[in-house]
Structures are given as structure tokens and as C-alpha cells.
Design goal:
The protein folds into two domains: 244 residues, no CATH class; 78 residues, Winged helix-like DNA-binding domain superfamily/Winged helix DNA-binding domain (Arc Repressor Mutant, subunit A), CATH 1.10.10. The protein contains 15 helices and ten strands. This is Winged helix-turn-helix transcriptional regulator.
Length: 326
């Protein structure tokens, strides 16, 4: 059990972000069979052929080996985001700037209790340009596995951030943590995280705040290593948007009134969403979704607001009544 003591200054200092490299490493672990696929099986089955095209790359093989199911993993390979809205280029630059001595220490710790790597993996990990080779392998994995789905993944993460940050701002720690994970709870000024790795420990934020990082391709994680921001990683809401479509009833009065696609959009906007996320759920082009949203907005059924680099749409009160009548 890890306990994180929270002070008054930590509330204002806490923030939300996402980590493209962390998602890439987790996605790589899923398609390579290093971690259980669970509910993400539909995505894994779709993405595995893409993985097989790069599976023999020595740096990719080394990254797969380092992605262990539990226990410490080298921080420089998937650095926690130091600020919100980081791009994959930002994180790759951070990774490549890692001093070799630091990277070797982290890799040695990562390898503890793992079997001896094979000759190909060992050649990468022992190379004088190990950091650069692993960064290039991560970039290859990103372009092959995650970049095709990143607009949808990013919109899932941004949608979750809007939801969770709103709860934190409006109601405080207890409400923000509610429903985040069964293994996370708030108790008398302390965040308790039920993670066995590393044994029991107490950590103090000391006014630096906590970085919340929603993730799609893994579950609960906690980073409390010196030199990195304290980071709580948790499964984002709505990951099924990567493969599911909304269910439709046989007799849909709303669809008859405003059209099938607009009815589906209105129902999906029970929570704020981007056009990219809506496009993925409905298998309709982003432009087509935008056209329908413009009509719904003109009719006073949806509104929009900017959140960081994205524009989020949400239902108005009138839209709520129409989509979910009493």
C-alpha cells in the first residue's frame, strides 16, 4: 500500500496530462503478450498485424523485454509528463537527452528478477548508444502501433481529463478520486493506492501537487521516483470508443425526428467530447460530424468550448431533455 500525504498547497498545484510514450510502451506490451489484454482484446487483435511488421527490430525487442507485467520499469523510456499537452516529439526529446549513466542504472533496476535477455536484446542494452537506439525503437513503435489511433486515443484522454478535473475543481480530492479505481481511495488527507510493488511507503507531495495521467492501454500505476513528478496513472473512461459503436433501438423516435446520425451524436454527448472521438464512435468522417454538430448547435441542442488544444461539444439543457426524456 502506498500512501500519499496531501497538503493544502497541493490542491492548486495538481494537474492533468497525458503521455504518448507511456501509451506506446503499454500498447507494445499488449500486442507482444507481455501484459494481459483484458477488455482491450478487440484493439489488440486489430493492431497485432502491425506489431508483427516491427517485431524483429532489435530496439523494439528490447523495449518489449523491458515492459514487465509488474515492478519497476526504466523511467527514461516512458517519462512521466512534466506538464500537460506534451507531444510525442517532446517526450522523445526528453528520452534522448537522458545521460547514459542514468539510463544504465534504470535499465539494471528494470532487469532485476527478469530472465537473462537474449543476445539481440543484450546487444541493444549494452550498446554505447543504447539511449538513442531505444528512443528510435520507441519512435518506430509509436508510428506503427499508436499513431494511426492517436486522434481517438487523445480524445478519450482529453474527455476523461475534462471530467476528472471538473470534479477536482468543484468538489475536491474525494470526488476526483471517486470511481478512478477500486484500488485508490481518499482518507483523512491521504491518497491510498493499493499497489504491492516496492512495499508499503508514505510519500509527501510537499506543495508540488500530483500529476494525474489517464491511460488507455494499461490500468493503475504510480510513479514516485526521485527527480520525476509524482504521477498517478489510471484507466481512462470510455476506452471502448476504440472499437465499439453505439447501440440503436429498433424504434427510435428521436432518429425519426432529427435523423439517425444526429440522434446518435446527441446521445453520445451526455459527456463532453471532441469531433474526433465522435467520429470514431460513429464511423463517420470528422467533417461529417462537424456538419451535423453545426446543425445541432444552431438548434440550441449542443454547445462548444475550448479545452487546451481541443474543442469539446456538450449537450445543452434542451438537448438533455430531447436525448433522455423524463
Amino acid at each position: 500500500m502506498k500512501r500519499i500525504e496531501v497538503g493544502q498547497a497541493d490542491f492548486a498545484a495538481s494537474r492533468f496530462g497525458h503521455s504518448p510514450l507511456l501509451e506506446t510502451l503499454n500498447a507494445l506490451g499488449l500486442v507482444a503478450g507481455r501484459i494481459p489484454v483484458g477488455a482491450l482484446r478487440p484493439w489488440v487483435e486489430r493492431a497485432r498485424p502491425r506489431y508483427l511488421a516491427i517485431a524483429d527490430d532489435p530496439a523494439v525487442r528490447a523495449l518489449v523485454f523491458l515492459r514487465r507485467r509488474a515492478g519497476y520499469m526504466a523511467d527514461f523510456v516512458s517519462p512521466p509528463p512534466a506538464r500537460p499537452n506534451l507531444t510525442v516529439a517532446d517526450q522523445l526529446a526528453t528520452m534522448r537527452a537522458t545521460p547514459l549513466d542514468q539510463a544504465r542504472r534504470e535499465v539494471a533496476r528494470n532487469l532485476a528478477d527478469l530472465p537473462e535477455p537474449d543476445r539481440v536484446v543484450r546487444s541493444v542494452l549494452d550498446a554505447p548508444d543504447m539511449v538513442g537506439r531505444l528512443a528510435t525503437g520507441m519512435e518506430t513503435a509509436w508510428h506503427t502501433l499508436l499513431e494511426p489511433d492517436w486522434p481517438v486515443v487523445r480524445s478519450i484522454l482529453e474527455r476523461d481529463i475534462v471530467h476528472r478535473a471538473g470534479r477536482l475543481a468543484a468538489y475536491g480530492w474525494a470526488e476526483a478520486l471517486d470511481g478512478l479505481s477500486r484500488r485508490v481511495r481518499w482518507r483523512d488527507g491521504v491518497i491510498e493506492v493499493d499497489i504491492a510493488a516496492g512495499g508499503d511507503a508514505v510519500h509527501r507531495l510537499g506543495g508540488a501537487g500530483l500529476m494525474f495521467v489517464p491511460i488507455v492501454f494499461s490500468e493503475l500505476g504510480l510513479a514516485v521516483e526521485p527527480g520525476w513528478p509524482y504521477t498517478l496513472m489510471y484507466r481512462a473512461r470510455g476506452v471502448a470508443a476504440l472499437w465499439e459503436r453505439p447501440e440503436r433501438g429498433p424504434d427510435d423516435a428521436l432518429a425519426k425526428l432529427i435523423g439517425r446520425t444526429r440522434a446518435d451524436l446527441l446521445r453520445l454527448l451526455a459527456d463532453p467530447a471532441t469531433t474526433t472521438w465522435l467520429s470514431a464512435r460513429l464511423r463517420v468522417s470528422v467533417g461529417g460530424v462537424g456538419d451535423h454538430l453545426a446543425v445541432l448547435r444552431a438548434a440550441g441542442l449542443v454547445t462548444r468550448q475550448r479545452s487546451g488544444r481541443s474543442v469539446l461539444y456538450r449537450r445543452t439543457a434542451v438537448g438533455d431533455v430531447l436525448a433522455d426524456p423524463p
